Amino acid sequence: MVALLELVSPGNKYAKHSIRLFVEKAVTALEHRIHLTVVDLFPPTPRDPHGIHAEIWKHFDGAVTVYPPTDPLTLVSYDAAVPLKAYLQPTAVRKVLPDVPIFLKPGRHILCPMEATYEAAYRGVPQRWKSVLEH
User: Fold this and answer.
1) What is the predicted pLDDT for the residue at 66?
2) CA nearest 82: which of 102, 60, 111, 57?
3) Which helix (H) or strand (E) holds 114?
4) What is the separation of C-alpha 33 from the centre of its chain, rounded to a whole number of angstroms?
5) Residues 6 or more apart from 103 whose CB is under 8 A from it?
6) 76: helix, coil or strand?
7) CA gyration radius for the chain?
8) Please, is 98 exposed, middle or buried when counting C-beta atoms within 10 Å of its C-beta (0-12, 13-18, 19+)?
9) CB neighbourhood size of 76 (10 A)
10) Count of structural domains within the chain
11) Cβ partners under 8 Å of residue 67, min gap 6
């Protein structure tokens, strides 16, 4: 495995145990030099007050990144090179999702078009469920 793309779900943030499992998986991947991209489009909770990235990053750096309250959601790409690097992109609901790098080699990445991918996926959602989501 070269790279891993993780989309955080509400279940990942539901309880301390579920956050711990998610973070352990991410940390293990990075320790094995597997590049990682995490898309966390759910607001921080009392169990991850600074977001999932802070929970992962404290295993490597210890520093906590505080996001602007206007941009509480995050997309982060980790280059599993030595030293480990994180490329963080804060965002918010109703903002266009930025393209995120997915690292394939240390220092080498491709861009994943998040907004275009989301729009393409949403076009395939049945109208019945679109009505539920849009209300």
Assistant:
1) 74
2) 60
3) helix 114-123
4) 17
5) 3, 35, 37, 77, 78, 79, 80, 109
6) strand
7) 15
8) middle
9) 25
10) 1
11) 50, 51, 74, 90
Question: In the predicted model, what is the mean pLDDT of residues 106-131?
Answer: 95
Cis peptide before 101 (omega within 30 of 0): no
Place of tokens 């210890």: 62
Which residues on neighbouring strands pair with residue 103, listed in sequence order? Answer: 109
Q: Are residues 63 and 73 in contact, defined by beta-carbon separation less than 8 angstroms?
A: no
The pLDDT value given to residue 67: 73
Domain containing residue 60: 3-134
Q: Which is it for the CA torsion 94, 78, 108, 102, positive or negative? A: negative
- The span from the CA of 108 to the CA of 43, in Å, is 30
The pair of structure tokens assigned to 89 is 């992109």
Place of tokens 């790098």: 101
Residues facing 5 on adjacent strands: 37
pTM surpassing 0.85? Answer: yes
- CA atoms in the 13 A half-sphere facing the CB of 114: 22
Our CA angle for 11, 56, 71, nearest 5°, is 75
